[in-house]
User: Fold this.
Amino acid sequence: MMNILNLLFPFSLGASADDWLNSHPHHSLTTWEEVKDKFLNHFFLESRVEAIKEHIVNFKQAPTESLFDAWE
Assistant:
């Protein structure tokens, strides 16, 4: 798993995500797919993702309302 993404990914993480990544033994995550799946499963629970999808699907904008105001 040695490429530019591997080198830059840790710098894109916040404190809790960085702690999560560092909690794995060195070289235990060997593919980008493995990192992605474990990261998403840890930080984006399926129930949370479903709730966000539901919110997006049910988005409504009043006829005189701006998109910005409706989304807020």
